[in-house]
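Final paragraph of the annual report: two paired records, presented back to back.
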Amino acid sequence: MKIDFWQLSSDPADKVCALIAQRVLDSGERLLIASADPDQRAAISKALWKAGPESFLANGEVGGPGADQQPILLAEGTNALNAASYLILADGEYRETTGFARVFLLFDDTTLEQARATWRSLDGVDELERSFFRQDGGKWVKVA
C-alpha cells in the first residue's frame, strides 16, 4: 500500500480532494473520501460537482441512494461501500486503511503534529510506501 501525506498550505481540502479525485477516476478506479466533519464533506461534495468548467465528479454520501454505485463516496469512516481502492483522509485524522491500494492523508497546520506522529508510527511497516508532498507556488512537489 502507498500512503501519501499532502500538506495543505494554499489550497483547501475540498479543492485538493477534487484534484485527486479527477486523477483517480481518470485511472478507472473508485474513491472513498473520509471526514468526521459533515460540513467538510458537504464542501467537498460541492467542489466535486463543480470540478471543472465542462465536467463534474459524480459523488454521494454514505446512507444516500445508490451509495454502493458511486464512483466517489463521502463518509465519516473508511468502510468502502463503493469498493473503492483509493482513500482520501480529508480531515487529517489517520484511520484504518486496510484494503486500499493508495491512501492520501491531507493535513494542515491544525493537524500537523498528528500527521508527524502518523508518519513516525508507520516507519518500517512492511509493504508500505510513504511519500510526502507540499505545495510550491501552487504546484504539488514530492519532498520525501
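The closing record of the year follows.
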Amino acid sequence: MLLSQLPNGAHALVQRVVSASGDVGAGTLRRLGELGFIAGEPVQVLRRGPGGREPLAVQVGETLFALRLLEAQCVEVQTLDVGVI
C-alpha cells in the first residue's frame, strides 16, 4: 500500500521508497530517505489539505512533515493496528 492511500489517522511502517512516476527523480527519493522515510520507521497520516487532497500532514518517527501527493505515492507502507506502535 502507498502512504498516499492511507486514511487520516492510520498508522503504518515504511517498507521502502520507490519512484512513483517519471516525474520523481533520484534526488526526491534520496531526500525522502534523508527525512526519515526508511524501512521499519513508523508513520502516520494525520490529515489532508483542503478537499482531502494535498498537502498531507504526515508524522514519521517523531517529526511532522507536509508532503505533496506525488511524494506520498513514493512511500510504500505496511498498515498496523493502532495498539501496535
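The two ends are 18 Å apart (CA to CA). This concludes the annual technical report; the extension proposal builds directly on these records.
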